[in-house]
Design brief:
36% of the residues lie in helices and 10% in strands. The protein is an alpha/beta fold.
Length: 394
Amino acid sequence: MKRLLLPALLLTTLTTLTACTAAPAGTLPAAAPTPTPTSTPAPTAAPTPADALTPEEKIGQLFIIRPDALDLTLPQETINDAKADGVTMLTDAMRETLQAYPVGGICQFGKNITDPEQLAQFNADLQAASRTPLFIAVDEEGGAVARLANHPAFDLPQYESAAAVGASGDPANACAMGQTIGAYLKEYGFNMDFAPDADVNTNPDNPIIGTRAFSSDAATAAEMAAAAADGLRTGGILPTLKHFPGHGDTAEDSHTALAVTYKTLDELQACELLPFAADTGLHAVMVGHIAAPNVTGDGTPATLSPQLVALIPDAENTLIVTDSLAMDAITAAYTPGEAAVQALQAGCDVLLMPNSLPEAYAAVLEAVQNGTISEERLDRSVNKILLYKQQFAS
């Protein structure tokens, strides 16, 4: 298959990759240096990256899916079930699906991994089957959430938790954590990590964050999350700060119900939002299914709320990713098509794991064709995605 060659991408509006400078020597596997791009002045009426894609390919770029979603014979409940058998290799039928739905990325889970050789081959095969470079992502936070390090077939460095690293008080340790994780993720073909957790763990009744957060102190959490993100970037891995606007003060798990923070905008800005502003390098932000009624006046989850998405620092240049659209917080109230279209209208760029790829894709295509979503709005997200891929997925 002929691989699509993207045009020269203009990086004048994006911050270049930063190097992790504080990691202690002698504690990390060697990581390949990340090349620093050269900015090129934009000529008048220069083509945008999205111009290289068909309308169908543009829409595909918006989606990151589980590899299981490429097997159209699987029911959605099996795709979403962490305990069900997962697909572990790319079949010809899955290749055909990738052509019909040319998605922008794949997220691997534990059920898709059997051993190091299989994982490396699977990721390589996925990249080879896509005309446009893929984001290949994973949840590898360190601690309880580490699909590779916690897998019995892998012999990789393990961390007690982000909280334990944060308790050291030294951001160099968080930076080293990011470098270590980034180095082994790159080895297996990943280029994006849904980490670090940038939540501030302020609610002792929170059922899902806990020690996944670096600290219950906002300044410490901000410093540590930024350092961890810096470490990931040095290995060529795109970090994803999560879960905006802050999951640490909620009493719900958005996997099973809509999470709610009752803080005002001033209170969020003084605490939960600080870690999302601390990292100044290239990164993505994952928006959670978290309502903030004292900010918006209603129960709309942040994923679908233009008012909340607009609060993301430097939202224009940050890659904005939804949390999984197959979570109960979304599926209980929205169809796959409604969730996908409304997330785009809210300002999100990447639609993560819709609860039916065919339905969500068709809804976005229809919305673009009938003008509900303008071509300019579509191109804005696609151009951003391709700019980030030029840095991390090429």
